[in-house]
Design a protein that fits this description.
The protein is mostly helical and 335 residues long. It contains 16 helices and no strands.
Length: 335
């Protein structure tokens, strides 16, 4: 009897279940207001173009983020240790010199000269100006005053006018008149070949003396100009700003036989690639050995645009460059 009642109840439940869908079907059909609510559904769609427009404008806000990323310090090239011993620094310095020798096998003094007197005068004139400007100025100067005796007897105003393009022409004229007279009176018209004698001449310091000694007499010397000092500090060869101390520190790293050519190579590199304001780090052959890598442009394509002189296919600084110089000669004054 219990079984029959259960079966009866199930049948009734089944009937109600079958009846309920049919009853709810009519409300489902009448739920056309949900279909009519399409305007409400279309309202978000109408706003979609505005959202898309905002999404399109969003990338325009990304460039500042990119600029910030460029200003972050560039990673150091592989092979450089931040902390290194004295021995490791010396080894790295010699490796840099080897790279420079391969990069600039034609490195040379960038002043035009034919004898020690011309080199001495040109070096004095090169202060606070470019070697190119000096080279463009000295042809007329040496044509009028070919020897110390001639320059010592020059009319100051005429000498000043000839060297005016090099800047600071009055002070430089006084130096040239003084050193020419000293060469005539104390050295028989000849340029001395010692540091001690040269630095006693008016307008001649250690830098000028070593330029003359190394290139006119073959006496080893380190020429610490602004380029050499800057790179020596960037490469951690020295921490000093004093040219005499820089000279002393670098002299302890390299043998005297390397001093003159090392000076040429470092100065060449400073003028062509490792500039003061924007070093071309991404185009620098010394980058893997440089503790200061990343101070300049690291992108290779952008760095290449920063190269100067023959590295950029432009003329060098000499009107009469050596035969092995790979670039074109500089134009004369007004050329």
């Amino acid at each position: 009897m219990t079984t029959k009642k259960t079966a009866t109840k199930k049948t009734a439940a089944e009937k109600t279940a079958a009846e309920k869908p049919t009853k709810k079907a009519t409300p489902a059909k009448k739920a056309t207001p949900a279909k009519k609510a399409t305007p409400a559904a279309k309202a978000p769609a109408a706003k979609a173009p505005a959202a898309k427009a905002l999404a399109k404008k969003a990338p325009a806000k990304k460039p500042p983020a990119k600029k910030a990323a460029k200003n972050t310090p560039a990673p150091k090239p592989p092979g450089f240790a931040k902390r290194e011993s004295r021995a490791a620094m010396v080894e790295r310095a010699h490796a840099i010199n080897e790279v420079l020798a391969e990069t600039y096998p034609y490195a040379h003094p960038e002043l035009d000269f034919e004898d020690p007197f011309q080199l001495l005068v040109a070096t004095v004139l090169s202060a606070q100006t470019t070697d190119l400007r000096v080279n463009q100025t000295t042809p007329a100067l040496f044509a009028k005053y070919p020897a110390p005796e001639d320059m010592a007897a020059a009319v100051p105003e005429e000498l000043e006018e000839l060297i005016r393009p090099t800047g600071f022409f009055r002070a430089k004229a006084r130096s040239l008149l003084g050193l020419s007279a000293a060469l005539r009176d104390d050295f028989g018209g000849e340029v001395p070949a010692t540091v001690d004698a040269l630095v006693k001449l008016p307008g001649v310091g250690r830098k000028t003396a070593f330029v003359v000694l190394g290139n006119a007499f073959g006496v080893p010397g380190i020429t610490v100009d602004t380029h050499f000092g800057r790179l020596a500090r960037r490469w951690k060869w020295t921490a000093s700003e004093d040219p005499v101390k820089v000279e002393s520190d670098v002299a302890e790293i390299f043998e005297p036989g390397e001093w003159t050519m090392l000076s040429h190579r470092v100065i060449f590199h400073g003028r062509r690639i490792c500039h003061s304001r924007r070093p071309a780090c991404g185009a620098c052959p010394v980058a893997p050995l440089c503790p200061s890598y990343g101070e300049g442009e690291t992108d290779p394509e952008k760095a290449t645009k920063l190269l100067k002189y023959e590295k950029a296919g432009m003329p060098g600084q000499r009107l009469k460059p050596p035969a092995d110089f790979p670039g074109p000669p500089a134009p004369p004054l007004g050329g």
